[in-house]
Amino acid sequence: MKRISLLHRHLQWRNLTVTALQRTPEIDRTIASIQSISSNPCFSLLGICKTVSSLRKIHALLVVHGLSEDLLCETKLVSLYGSFGHVECARLMFDRIRNPDLYSWKVMIRWYFLNDSYSEIVQFYNTRLRKCLNEYDNVVFSIVLKACSELRETDEGRKLHCQIVKVGSPDSFVLTGLVDMYAKCREVEDSRRVFDEILDRNVVCWTSMIVGYVQNDCLKEGLVLFNRMREGLVEGNQYTLGSLVTACTKLGALHQGKWVHGYVIKSGFDLNSFLVTPLLDLYFKCGDIRDAFSVFDELSTIDLVSWTAMIVGYAQRGYPREALKLFTDERWKDLLPNTVTTSSVLSACAQTGSLNMGRSVHCLGIKLGSEDATFENALVDMYAKCHMIGDARYVFETVFDKDVIAWNSIISGYTQNGYAYEALELFDQMRSDSVYPDAITLVSVLSACASVGAYRVGSSLHGYAIKAGLLSGSVYVGTALLNFYAKCGDAESARVIFDEMGEKNTITWSAMIGGYGIQGDCSRSLELFGDMLKEKLEPNEVIFTTILSACSHSGMLGEGWRYFNTMCQVYNFVPSMKHYACMVDLLARAGRLEEALDFIEKIPIQPDVSLLGAFLHGCRLHSRFDLGEVAVRRMLELHPDKACYYVLMSNLYASEGRWSQANQVMELMKQRGLAKLPGWSLVDIETSNDFSPLIVASHP
Known about the structure:
Layout (H helix, E strand, L loop, with lengths): L1 H19 L4 H14 L3 H6 L4 H13 L6 H13 L3 H9 L6 H13 L3 H15 L5 H14 L2 H14 L4 H13 L3 H10 L5 H13 L3 H13 L6 H14 L2 H14 L5 H13 L3 H9 L6 H13 L3 H8 L11 H14 L2 H14 L4 H13 L3 H10 L5 H13 L3 H13 L6 H14 L2 H13 L2 H4 L1 H13 L3 H10 L5 H13 L3 H13 L6 H14 L2 H14 L6 H13 L3 H10 L6 H13 L3 H14 L4 H13 L3 H13 L7 E6 L9 E6 L1
Antiparallel strand pairs: 1-2
Helix pairs in contact: 1-2, 5-6, 5-7, 6-7, 7-8, 7-9, 8-9, 9-10, 9-11, 11-12, 11-13, 12-13, 13-14, 13-15, 14-15, 15-16, 15-17, 17-18, 17-19, 18-19, 19-20, 19-21, 20-21, 21-22, 21-23, 22-23, 23-24, 23-25, 24-25, 25-26, 25-27, 26-27, 27-28, 27-30, 28-30, 30-31, 30-32, 31-32, 32-33, 32-34, ...
C-alpha cells in the first residue's frame, strides 16, 4: 500500500503538470491508463515477484480475494509466467481471460517468440489471433513471419502475406520479414519480388536479400546486389559483409574475398565473430593458411569463437599438429572449449594418431558436459583411427540415439582396421534399426566387400545406390563401386561403371587402371593411363605403383624403366618402398638379377621384406639360389629379430630341395623366440542369408 500511495502522489503531480499544458485525446487516454494501473493493487504485489514460486503464491492470494479477474492484472500474470519460462502456465492464464485486448494477445505471442516456440506461434495466430486482428500491427506480423521462417512453412507464410496485403499497406520492417521468410523457405524469386516492392530500402532490407541469395547458393547474384547497394549509397553492416565473404568462399574467389576483407578494414569494422569466422573459413578453404593465421594473430581479443574457428580450419585443411598446438597453447588456457572445439581437436588427434591426447580430450568433454552426438561421433572416429577399435565400439554402444553419422563412424572404423566381416555385420544391424545408409555408408561397406570378396553383397549395394540416386550424385560412391568390381575380378563391370561416371577424379582413374593391373591386362592399363594424361589430370603415386606392377607382370622392362624415370624426373615424386619393390620385381622376373641386387644396394632407404621377397621370387624363377642366399643373409644381419626373413630363407632352401638347411633356419628362429604369424584367407559361399558367411582358412 505504501507503493500505491507513492504512485498516487506522483500522479497528482503529473496531473497538475498536464493541466497546465494543452490537453489532447492521446494525453487523456495515457492519463486514464496510468490511473487505472495506479488504482489496481495487483501491480504492486506482482511487481515484487522474483521467482515463479512467489508468483504462484501471490496469484493464489489474488484469486482468493477475487482480484485476479481484472484485464490488466490477468495480462500482467501472463507476462510474468512467460518471463519465468513457464509458457504453458502463461497460456493457461491467457485462456482464462474473457475478453483479451490486442495488448494481451501481443504479450502472449511475444513470450512464445522469446522461448522459440515457433509451432505454437503459428497455431496461436491461426486459431485465435487472426480472427480478431482487424488492424495492421507490425509486431504481430513480424513475429509470425519469423516463426514461418524458422519452420520453413512456405504455405503458412504465403497465407500471412495475403493477410498483410489485405489489412493494409505494410512498412519496410514487415516487408523485410517477408523477404527473409521466402529466402529461408528457398523461394528466392518470391523473395526478390517482395524486395523490389520496398521503396525505402535500408541496410537491413539489402542485407536480408543478400543473405537470402548466399544461403540459397545464388552467390553471384548476391555479389551483384551488393554492388547495387553501394550504388544506392547504402553502406553494408557486419552481417552484409560476413555473407559476402561466405559467398566468396563458396565460389573459391580468394581475390574477391580479399577485396571484401580490405573493405572491412577501410570501413573501420571491428573483427567480431560475425566477420572473423567467415574470413578464417575463406582463407583456409582457399588454401591461404598464412593469411588465415595473420587474421587470427592481429585480433585484439581472442574469444572462444575465433579460437575455435582457427582450430577447425587447421583440422579440416590437413594441419592437425597446428590445431593441437593451438589448443594446448597456454595463452588461451582460460577459454573453455565447446563441442565444436573438442570435436575438431579429436579429429586432429585421429589424423596424427595422438591417442593420449584424444583420451585427455575425451575426459575434458565429459567434465564440460559436451557429450552430444557430434562429440561422440568424433570420439568413435578418433579411437578407430588410433586402432583402438574396442574403445570405439564401447563409445558407439553408449550413444542413445544413433543416427547415420554414428553408424558411418563405426562401420568405417572397422573397415579401416581390417575387420571387414564385422563391418558388414554392423551394416546389417544398421538396416535392422531402420537407419538408411547414405553415400558415406556405401563407400565404407563397398570397401569391406572388396577386401573379402563379398560379391553378392556388393552387387546388392550397387542396386541400392542406383535406386537411391547415390551413384549418379557422388564420385566417391562410383569410385568405391568400381574398385569393388575390380578387386572381385569383374573388370568389365568396373569399366561400365567407369564409363558411366560423369565426374572422375584421380582416385577414380587410379582404381580403374589398378583393376586392369590386377587382371594382368597391362596394355589396357597403359592405354587408360594415356587417356588420363590427355584429360590433363596429374597422376598420383598409387597410379605409378599400378603401372609399374603391370609392366612387371607383363615383362615390359623398357616401359617400366621409362615410367619410373617419368615419375621421378617429370612429376618429382620421391619413390616409396612399393615403387622400389615393383622395379626389383620387374628386373628379377626379366632375369636381370645382378642388376636387381645392385639396385637394392643403391636405393636410399632400408629395404624391407616386400622388396626382398620380390627379388627372391626372381631367384627361384631363374634358379639363382646363390644370389638369393646372399641377399637374405644380409637382411638377417641387419634384422636378426624379424621372423619374416628367417621364413624367406627357409622357403628359399626348401624350393631348392635343401630340407636340412631349411629346418636348421626354422630351429634357429624358434631358439631366438620368434614366431611366424599364420596366414588366412576368406571365401564367400552361397547361402540364403542376407550376408554370406565367410569361411576362414588358416595357413601355416
